[in-house]
Structures are given as C-alpha cells and as structure tokens.
Amino acid sequence: MQSGALGVNWTPLVGAVCGCLLVFAASCGIVWFKKRKREERDERPPQEEKILRPAGYFAMCRVEELAEKLVWVMLMAASAGMIFGGVAGTLWPVAAGLALRRFTVRQIWATQGSEILVATALLGLVALLWSVRQFQVMWRLVDELRAWKFGLRGEQAVAEKLMDRELAAAGYVAFHDLPAQKWRKKWNVDHIVVGPGGVFVLETKTRPRRRPKWNQPEHEVIFDGSVLRFPWCYDDVAAKQARFNADWVRKYLGVYAPEELRIQPVIIVPGWFVPPPPADANFDVKVMNANYLVGFLKGAPRLYRSEQLTTVIQRLDDGCRSLEF
After folding, report:
1. DSSP state of 102
2. pLDDT band at residue 6 using 50, 70 and 90 as cut-offs
3. Cα angle vertex 180, ends 179, 182, to 5°?
4. Looking at CB atoms within 10 Å, which of 47, 189, 243, 323 has the fewest?
5. What single DSSP character describes residue 323?
6. How far apart are the C-alpha atoms of 81 and 69, rounded to whole Å?
7. Using a CB cutoff of 8 Å and minimum separation of 24, what contacts does 139-143 make?
8. Residue 223 phi, psi dihedral angles, 5° rounding
C-alpha cells in the first residue's frame, strides 16, 4: 500500500484503527452478552426484604465506580496510543523526508492526496493529546482510589470495635452508613451508636502515616476544637462535618426521639494517638482513637432507658435497611 513518491505506507494506521475497534467491540459485546444471559435466566434476588447497609458501603460503592472508571481510562489511553503509533508509523517516511530535505512542504501540498496526509497528521495529534489527557485522569484516579480504599478500611476498623460484646451488654446498638440527603446533596453518616448515653454520631477520618513536616510525633494528631493537625497535614473540615451530621441526625430523628435527646458528634481517627485536651477545654466535638471508643461509650452518663430509645432505633433501622439483596 504505497502512496506515490512519498513512500507512505498505510498498513500500520489501518491495523491500529482496526485493533482499537476490535477491542472496543469485544468489550461492549461481553458486557451486553452477560446482561442478556442474566435476563434469559430471569435472574433476581432470592428475597425481596432489604438488608442493613454494612460499614463503609458508600465508600465500597465509590471504590467500585473508580476501579471501573480506571479500567476504561486505561483502555482509552491504550487505544489512543495505538492510533498515535499507527499514525507515526504511517507518516514516518514523510517526517524523515522533511528532516533530510529530500522534499519540501510545498512539494507535499502539491502531491495528490495531500489532504489525506494532513487529516492523518491531525488524527495523530488528537490521539496524542487524548492519550496524555487520559494519563492525567489516571494519575488522579489512582490517588482517589487509594484514598477511598483507606477510608473504607478505617470505617471497617471502627465497625469492628463497635461489635464489642460488652458494648452490646451495656445497651448500645450501632448502625452504619446511614444515607443522608439535603436538597440535591447526598452523603452518608459513617456510624451512629444509640444507647443509655444518648446518640453518638461518628465521623471516621483515616489518614496514612508519613514523614512529619513539622515538629510533631508521626503517630500523633492534635485537636484544638476546630482543626485536626496531623504530622503532615491539617484538616479543618472534619469538625464542621461532624457537627453538620449531628444536626442532620437530630432533624432526621425528629418526633421519633425523646425531647432534648443528647446527640454527641465524635471524630474517630483509627490508628492515631490523640493527646487529651487541656483541662479547661470543653470541645463540643470529641476526637479519639478507635481503641478508646468502647470505653468512652460505656463511661458516658446513663441518661435514657431502653424503652425511651425504641423509636429512635427503629427509625435508624428503617433508614439503614436500604440495601437490596
């Protein structure tokens, strides 16, 4: 497949385009075929009753979405790279001829079919830019995926502590991943614990340990009532989020809760040591390691009897029981 005196060979480009089309067609075909087979088998859940959401379910769904998106981004980057490689292989004789001054741009324009060469060059440029863009997206997705996986493990670690038998014996019930919505904004409340001490709204903040950026032990996080100071970063959103979630839960419970129900926002930082606050400090948001959570809940003043919290527990059970089998 030669093209005149320029020696352009269209085989690499045709092969690259056909390869990309084949990969995309096969991928879409597999997805469609699997879906069609499930429909033919009349596949459906064995029970209609919904189940409680597990700890970190929102983060789990986000991890799955990001992982699927990452696969498609990698596929698009590879396809764009194949097309760019095909264009580069096709136009290499032209580029080499211009570099060695065997012919000029004017001569190329005068060649029959020069508009096809220009269109091919533009296709290669677009493919290159698209591939670079996909690598940028991939760079961001990898970090975001790791952050969500880290958050998922943190919520699971807190849920494990809340399964303590002594905590259940003390009359406490834990719920996880309560779906929340206000206007068009959707989010989730990580954990809610109900018991004799009231309602405790837990916000889990999981951070990896890194080399400290300032003079602070690498295992320690300091809370001043509004900002979490890790050895390598600050978090001035966690306390606001914990207060916001506590206010939302109060409104969500509404008439189902006893009058003036005590609702305590708590931030849990699994794996970190939190120094006790100053003696004269009375922060409305508490911050602690997951290991101290059980003792904190059991040591809370007993303000309510179990029958006073029956409607609260039922309300939260209804809200968290939204997961289809």
Report:
1. S
2. low
3. 155
4. 47
5. B
6. 18
7. 141/66, 141/69, 141/70, 141/73, 142/70
8. -120, 125
Which residues lie closer than 8 Å to 296 by C-beta, 6 or more apart?
Answer: 266, 286, 288
Cα-based angle 157, 162, 165 (whole degrees, multiple of 5)? 125
pTM of whole model > 0.85? Answer: no
If 0-12 CB within 10 Å is exposed, 13-18 middle and 19+ buried, where does residue 75 land? middle
Token code pair at residue 165: 């038998």
Cα dist. 53→6, 22, 211 in Å? 65, 40, 36
The per-residue b/e assignment along 133-169, b for 16 or more CB within 10 angstroms, e otherwise, is: ebeebeeebeeebebbbebbbbbbbbbebbebeebee
Q: How far apart are CA 322 and CA 325, in angstroms?
A: 10
Quote the pLDDT of residue 221.
96
Minimal CA–CA distance to 59: which of 154, 167, 165, 157? 154
Instruction: Quote the pLDDT of residue 176.
Output: 97
Max CA separation in the chain (angstroms): 93
Neighbouring residues of 135: CB distance < 8 A, sequence distance ≥ 6: 77
